[in-house]
Amino acid sequence: MTGLTEISDVCAYTIVCGEKVQTDGKLYYQGYDVKIFLRKVQQIFDDLKANVKDWEDEEEIQAYLLGVLNKERFDRSGLIYGLGHAVYAVSDPRKIILKEFAKKLSDACISGWSAHRLEELVNKGRIIRPAYRFVGVHKEYQEMEERE
Predict the structure, then answer these.
(1) Of 36, 25, 34, whose CA–CA distance to 7 is shortest?
(2) pLDDT at residue 51, rounded to an integer
(3) Smallest Cα–Cα separation from 8: which of 26, 24, 35, 23?
(4) Phi and psi angles of residue 27, each rounded to the nearest 5 degrees, phi first
(5) Residue 98, by phi and psi: left (phi above 0), alpha (psi -120 to 50) or beta?
(6) E strand or H helix at 7, and its extent?
(7) What is the C-alpha separation between 75 and 71, in angstroms, rounded?
């Protein structure tokens, strides 16, 4: 996960018996639930801390990571989970940023959904938006082949 600028979906519902049912919001990054992914990242860091005694010993760290890749350690999936490209000895500071981002996003969504619902109740089922006023300069349509 090299950056959260590529979040692919934010989902606040699930499908039950063919109908949408509102749920807590979920973030998806390239098809993976971010919450589950973060749990895996935390688990591999915890396992790494428990199994590598000397953080200065590159051979010990390399042996651990090779064990993970060879499906002999951690969850035996052969995958090394992490955020970005660096492996941090104690914790990954970007995880804190990700948690803050997810919290801010969920807070913003909840307040927005609440505002829409209140507006809907007050306006008898309608959500009213401001009128759109174009302030640009109109241009003649140009076919794709003719564009530079």
Answers:
(1) 34
(2) 92
(3) 26
(4) -100, 140
(5) alpha
(6) strand 7-16
(7) 8
Beta-carbon neighbour count of residue 5 at 10 Å?
5
DSSP 19-82: EEEEEEEEEEETTEEHHHHHHHHHHHHHHHHHH---TT-HHHHHHHHHHHHTTSSTTSSS----
Whole-model pTM: value is 0.42
The amino acid occupying position 115 is A
Q: Which residues, in sequence order, are bridge partners of residue 27?
A: 10
Mean pLDDT by 10 residues, the chain (148 residues): 48 74 68 75 88 89 89 89 52 63 74 78 78 84 88
Going by C-beta distance under 8 Å and a sequence separation of 6 or more, which residues neighbour residue 51? 64, 73
Contacts of 54 (CB under 8 A, 6+ apart): 60
Q: For residue 27, how many other CB atoms are within 10 A of its CB?
A: 21
